């Protein structure tokens, strides 16, 4: 009986020690130091999100400023070991973003030996491939949302968008507001792409703006609209673009000058909303060859344009009005079309899906 009681007390003691150790970890970074570190974490979160979204990528000057902030914080003579480890891990994350993986690894190893269980060290180790399972690592309970956030980012990168959205939403509840401000757009991108097969042009679909070449690749992969123009033979990108360019699918629907509207179009030309309307409407016309309806003539007679920022004499007037009327595209704010704005990959895919319903 005494033996059983002794074992029970020993188990309770060990559990208590673990709890005490976690409590020590929670309070091991003084509030003043934690505030300074949080400011650095905010900068790194914004940096990280910009790389994921592939926009507003930090410059060398931006990286230097973050390094400087970290070094200044490291100069505090009263810095606790837990804070030292956190700052080392954060510096490693900056080096990792810069592509300096050896320096990032050095930071990880030093941070890991300085203080066990720091959450930023675990995240850095995961990105370096040195930590296989973040969830199994012992970290402070209050830092678990950061592990969840990192898991959400990994799910996003793998194309598991539904899973990513759920993890982002759960993590944001417990994290400081700046994390949602930094990664909110990544979460929203995952929501837009939640019904997309991760193997099906996910790299193009996730882009904020796409080129004409990417437009054709999306069209070819998701519809049969190009079959009559390019056939079933596997073509190189140059061959595909050349065939489509010569097919008339990129010609203006209401040419007002003798010069071809395609003369300045290249594979790397970004798809604007008016170019998208032109291409989509020409695809629609290719399925309804006997439809001679002219919106331009109709509204010229009426003396006005139904769309605020697309004039009746615009060389793609029929395309814009036709796409809006047939609900293939929308007026952004209910009034304007914003013809020169670029279009997202997922948005163009949605337009293709709507066009399929129109012509089926």
What does this structure look like?
The protein has 360 residues and is mainly α. It contains 17 helices and no strands. It has helices at 2-27, 31-53, 60-74, 81-98, 101-114, 119-128, 144-157, 161-174, 177-192, 202-205, 212-222, 227-230, 237-247, 273-287, 295-302, 317-325, 345-359. Helix 4 (81-98) packs parallel to helix 6 and helix 14 (273-287) crosses helix 16. Residues 2-27 have low confidence and may be disordered.
Biggest sheet overview: none
**Strand percent estimate:** under 5%
What percent of residues adopt helix (DSSP H or I)? 55-70%
Task: Tell me the number of helical segments per DSSP (H or I, 4 or more residues long).
Answer: 17
Q: What's the overall average pLDDT, rounded?
A: 86
Q: Which spans of ≥5 residues are poorly predicted at pLDDT below 50?
A: 2-27
By secondary-structure content and strand pairing, the structural class works out as mainly alpha
Shape: elongated
Oligomer: single chain
The separation of the N and C termini measures 80 Å
Spell out the helices and strands N to C.
Answer: HHHHHHHHHHHHHHHHH
Instruction: Report the count of strand segments.
Output: 0
Instruction: Report the radius of gyration as a whole number of Å.
Output: 28 Å
């Amino acid at each position: 009986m005494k033996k059983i009681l002794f074992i029970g007390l020993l188990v309770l003691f060990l559990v208590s020690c673990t709890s005490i150790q976690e409590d020590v970890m929670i309070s091991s970074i003084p509030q003043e130091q934690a505030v300074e570190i949080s400011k650095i974490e905010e900068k790194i979160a914004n940096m990280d999100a910009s790389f994921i979204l592939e926009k507003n990528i930090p410059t060398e000057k931006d990286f230097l400023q973050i390094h400087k902030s970290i070094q200044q914080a490291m100069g505090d003579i009263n810095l606790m070991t837990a804070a030292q480890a956190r700052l080392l891990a954060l510096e490693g994350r900056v080096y990792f973003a810069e592509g300096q993986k050896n320096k990032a690894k050095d930071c990880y190893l030093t941070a890991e030996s300085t203080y066990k269980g720091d959450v930023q060290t675990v995240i850095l180790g995961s990105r370096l491939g040195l930590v296989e399972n973040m969830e199994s690592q012992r970290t402070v309970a209050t830092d678990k949302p950061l592990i969840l956030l990192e898991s959400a980012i990994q799910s996003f990168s793998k194309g598991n968008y539904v899973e990513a959205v759920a993890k982002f939403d759960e993590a944001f509840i417990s994290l400081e507001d700046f994390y949602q401000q930094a990664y909110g757009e990544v979460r929203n991108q995952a929501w837009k792409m939640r019904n997309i097969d991760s193997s099906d042009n996910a790299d193009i679909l996730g882009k904020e703006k796409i080129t004409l070449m990417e437009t054709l690749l999306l069209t070819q992969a998701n519809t049969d609209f190009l079959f009559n123009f390019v056939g079933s033979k596997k073509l190189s990108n140059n061959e595909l673009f050349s065939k489509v360019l010569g097919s008339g699918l990129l010609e203006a629907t209401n040419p007002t000058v003798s010069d071809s509207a395609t003369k300045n179009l290249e594979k790397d030309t970004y798809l604007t909303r008016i170019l998208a309307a032109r291409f989509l409407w020409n695809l629609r016309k290719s399925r309804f060859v006997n439809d001679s309806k002219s919106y331009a003539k109709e509204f010229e007679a009426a003396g006005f344009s139904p769309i605020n920022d697309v004039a009746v004499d615009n060389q793609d007037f029929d395309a814009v009005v036709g796409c809006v009327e047939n609900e293939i595209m929308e007026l952004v704010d209910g009034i304007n079309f914003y013809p020169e704005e670029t279009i997202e990959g997922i948005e163009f895919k949605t337009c293709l899906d709507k066009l399929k319903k129109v012509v089926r």
